[in-house]
Amino acid sequence: MGYYAYYTYGLPTFLVIVIALYLLFTGSGEAFNVGRFLEESSPYAWGATGIGLCIGLSVLGAGWGIFVTGASILGGGVRQPRITTKNLISIIFCEVVAIYGVSIRQACTPLLRRTLHTSKLLHRFCPLLGGLTVGACNLLCGVCVGVTGSTAALSDAADPDLFVKILVVEVFGSILGLFGLIVGLLMIGSAQDFQATAHVASRAAQAVVSPFVH
């Protein structure tokens, strides 16, 4: 475990520190310019990365939840076949998580088309940040729903009265993915509103400025 932690965390950190100190003491510190890298990199690359992370993490969370829940349903259904049909609602909750990730892609596509014609860093990185937020929330939501659905299946096999009680917990766990979807839509919508506000402000400034001022 010690060697694994060293090669995973310690070695990359040590290499980054060595490279940063070398650039600093050799007078090439300006080469390590994160802002310049972000400004010169393609906005389509960041937007596509955000959309890919959103869909990928959402599908990963949904698949993880279905795997955990399905294994428990099949295992408990061997002794209690009555639980197989009723506990399929947990599979549906897990599948909805993937739909959240696909839906945010439709909202990011119009903003991604306008990123090439703008110099605002907010417009460039909103698809990335929004997609990463939705993807991370859906990943955690899928795991939460999967573990809770697995517990609901095993509890239903032992005592049928416990199914509804644990299902309430599962419903509240599935709402976490909806919260992430709402936050991602708000981030993308704020970028579009900011672009519209900036356009209106520039038109108003042109109308106010006197034609005699050069």
Provide keyphrases for this structure.
214 residues, mainly alpha, 7 helices, 86% helix, 0% strand, disordered C terminus
Strand content: under 5%
Order of helices and strands: HHHHHHH
The number of helical elements comes to: 7
**How big is the Rg?**
24 Å
Uncertain regions spanning at least 5 consecutive residues: 196-214
GO molecular function: proton-transporting ATPase activity, rotational mechanism
Protein name: ATP synthase subunit C-domain-containing protein
Keywords: Hydrogen ion transport, Ion transport, Membrane, Transmembrane, Transmembrane helix, Transport
Membrane topology: Multi-pass membrane protein
Quick overview of this protein structure:
By secondary structure, this protein is mainly α. It has helices at residues 2-25, 34-40, 43-79, 83-86, 88-114, 121-158, 162-208.
Task: Describe the overall structure.
This protein is an all-alpha fold and 214 residues long. The protein is 86% helix and 0% strand. The chain contains 7 helices and no strands. The radius of gyration is 24 Å and the shape is elongated. It starts with a helix and ends in a 6-residue tail after the last helix.
How are the secondary structure elements laid out?
Elements: H1 2-25, H2 34-40, H3 43-79, H4 83-86, H5 88-114, H6 121-158, H7 162-208
Helix pairs in contact: 3-5, 3-6, 5-6, 5-7, 6-7
